Amino acid sequence: MATIELDHVTKVYPNKNQAVSDLSLDVADGEFMVLVGPSGCGKTTALRMVAGLEEISGGTVRIGGRVVNDLSPKERDVAMVFQNYALYPHMTVAENIGFSLKLRHLDKAEINRRVQEAAQTLGLEGMLNVKPASLSGGQRQRVAMGRALVREPAVFLMDEPLSNLDAKLRVQMRAEVSRLQRRLGVATLYVTHDQIEAMTMGDRVAVLAHGVLQQCEAPQTLYDHPANLFVAAFIGSPAMNIYQGGLESDDGQVAVRLGDQRIVVPPSELKERPALAQYGGRQVAVGIRPEHLAVGHELPDNPSVLHAEIDLLESLGAEVIVHFRIKADHIRPEGAAAEGEDQTLPLAIGAGGSDKTAPGVARVDPRVQLKVGQSVTLVPDTEHLQFFDLETGATITS
Amino acid sequence: MATSPARTALAAPAPSAVPAVHRWRSPRGRRHLGSQLLFYLAVAVVVLIALFPFFWILRTSLESNSEFVQGVGGANGLIPAHLTLSSYIDDFTQLHFLTPLINSAIVALATTVVTVVVASLAGYALARLPIRGGGVILTFVLLAGFFPVLAMVGPLFLLYRDFGLLDNIYPLILTYLVYTLPLATWLLRNFFAQIPKELEEAALVDGASRLQTLRKVVIPVSVPAVFTAGILSFILAWNDFAFALSFLDSPSHFTAPLAIVIFGQSQFQTFYNRIDAAVVVITIPIAILVLIAQRRIVSGLTAGSLKG
Ligand SMILES: Nc1ncnc2c1ncn2[C@@H]1O[C@H](COP(=O)(O)OP(=O)(O)OP(=O)(O)O)[C@@H](O)[C@H]1O
Ligand SMILES: [Mg+2]
């Protein structure tokens, strides 16, 4: 049991490809840290540097306080679950799980005991004597887990261990892996590109883009207070709606203009984001999560509404995902629509100027009667608006 | 008339059963049967052509000297009336076939062992380690394996003569390695290169050294390729005639293929029955190897190591 510390770690591949840049990350003892980001952002590379499978180009990696930069994987005492499991095909399940113990010359009885124990934990008792070829995907995944946990290593490294499972099994294994990690209390660095996995499993989540750490926080903090546009767009499903709007202020009231719509920014937001005052008369990125939009009416005391036309309805039973279009300038930051949302919807060909329409998503109660093509009034919960600097993408706070 | 009740009784279930079977078999069934027959016929022809020479060798080897002399030209028929092991006994008693057999075994086994060990290491290095110009090395390695044997005999003869290595079976091992190593290295490198890297990385993380990874994961997973390389090496060394003929002098140093040639020679006649008996004997190890290989060379040994 130990901590993992990455201190300004950089990886430049021999072909000059900079996969990880100046990554600093601390995983506390017993913590479940999820490393998330889109494909190719350097997650696997970071993990492999911790495992000792990839040379570290710059910075230091410490495991349990010990600098491991120049240690072989063997000397680092890490256990790793590979994305494609990498089970030894010529060994039985028991031999696969016990391989690391055999290499350390533990006596047979002890190996047996620990393999049995791991098998029991993972529900693999019945298949200890079969070869991986005759196992299902889920069972193979479990063997890969077993191989890691039989070691009782200093730290666990997992590279998208659930990505090859079908949806249902993935949800089930998600909970199982979390439970197991919590029980063992071993510091874990878990890589995924699935933000739902990241949100549900991690004690903390580190978001990576282009090899650069964007933010590392508890899942809820990440969701409520994204540090920049990338995190805002990447975390959350369906993704946050982000539009470009002009910030106007007159007689103490600050409002953001989206097309011909005007949303008043409530005082609480202004207090929370004092820097917003400096953006008067400038364009900013405004974000609002789908659950903070309600179908309603324009009221005299609340003129801050959006006029939307419904494009598509997706009923999920407990809620309805409403895809709509509004008159506004859409911003699709990189990282958005990671789940492939929006992409099937027809693109609006704006006539230019303020006639441009932008797509958006709202989550509404299924009891609200809605039809495709219908025009509705959306009432945003302005307390939850997010503001970002258009140039830097950073969230506007203080 | 007396049999008619019995006949009707027997036939009773037929009307329903027979048409059912017919409907199931024809017309497609019948055509299928025809094409199957053709297939087996073709197979039989191929097998016959391939095996007939060997059958003839086996048949001749089971003739005694006198029968052989009488039956030159196949006068004894496809299968001679009297089968005897006398040629085999002669080979081992009068002609001391055991000595060349042992010589051949030493040479072939040593060649095989050295080839498999060295080619595994070399193949692994070429497949996995960042070697500058690995591709070029590989091309040259492969070229070396195809160097014409007869072009090699002359220079090597001079070399071995200068070093006093002629009429000695051990330099033969060195000679065979010139041919077996390149082929085996190339074969194994290509196989190793196909093994998922993660398999080795998993072993490294599990606490294995590079060599342990090679020995406990890569080689076992590559059993088909290792067997193929080993068998090819063994056969090449076991069957060699040109080098043995050029470098060996005294009959006690002869390898089996070389010894066989002088077997049948009496002053007036070549006893092919004795030669053929020896041929059968030296074919046995090869046949056994191929049989073992067939069992071990199962495709898809890496199946199941990766995802679902
Ligand atoms: N051996 C290599 N040599 C050169 N570039 C590499 C190498 N391995 C990875 N890269 C590059 O480094 C970047 C990061 O790759 P990495 O595998 O870490 O991404 P990832 O975040 O794990 O992606 P995914 O979610 O698809 O697994 C990519 O641009 C990739 O092309
Ligand atoms: Mg990856």
Q: Secondary-structure map with pairings?
A:
The complex is a heterodimer of chains A (398) and B (308).
Chain A: E1 4-12, E2 18-27, E3 32-36, H1 43-51, E4 58-63, E5 66-67, H2 73-76, E6 78-81, H3 93-103, H4 108-122, H5 137-149, E7 155-159, H6 167-184, E8 187-192, H7 195-201, E9 204-209, E10 212-217, H8 219-224, H9 229-234, E11 241-250, E12 253-258, E13 261-265, H10 267-272, E14 283-288, E15 293-296, E16 306-315, E17 320-327, E18 329-330, E19 357-364, E20 375-380, E21 386-389
Parallel strand pairs in A: 3-8, 3-9, 6-7, 7-8
Antiparallel strand pairs in A: 1-2, 1-4, 4-5, 9-10, 11-12, 11-14, 11-18, 12-13, 14-21, 15-20, 16-17, 16-20, 17-19
Helix pairs in contact in A: 3-4, 3-5, 4-5
Chain B: H1 4-11, H2 14-25, H3 28-61, H4 65-70, H5 86-93, H6 98-128, H7 134-145, H8 149-162, H9 170-194, H10 197-205, H11 210-221, H12 223-239, H13 242-247, H14 256-263, H15 272-296
The complex binds adenosine-5'-triphosphate and magnesium ion.
Please identify the structural class of chain B as seen in this structure. mainly alpha
Termini separation of chain A: 39 Å
Number of helices of chain A: 10
The overall average pLDDT of chain B, rounded, is: 82
Largest interface: A-B, 36 and 27 residues
Number of helices of chain B: 15
Q: Could you give a short account of the major beta sheet of chain B?
A: none
In which range does the helix fraction of chain B lie?
Answer: over 70%
Report the strand count of chain A. Answer: 21
Low-confidence stretches of chain A: 337-354
Q: Just name the CATH architecture of the domain at 95-304 in chain B.
A: Orthogonal Bundle
Fraction of helical residues of chain A:
10-25%
What's the SSE pattern of chain B?
HHHHHHHHHHHHHHH
Provide the list of bound ligands, each named once: adenosine-5'-triphosphate, magnesium ion
Strand order in space, largest sheet of chain A: 6-7-8-3-9-10
Portion of residues in beta strands of chain A equals 25-35%
Biggest sheet architecture of chain A:
6 strands, mixed
What proportion strand of chain B?
under 5%
Number of strands of chain B: 0
Give the rounded overall mean pLDDT of chain A. Answer: 89
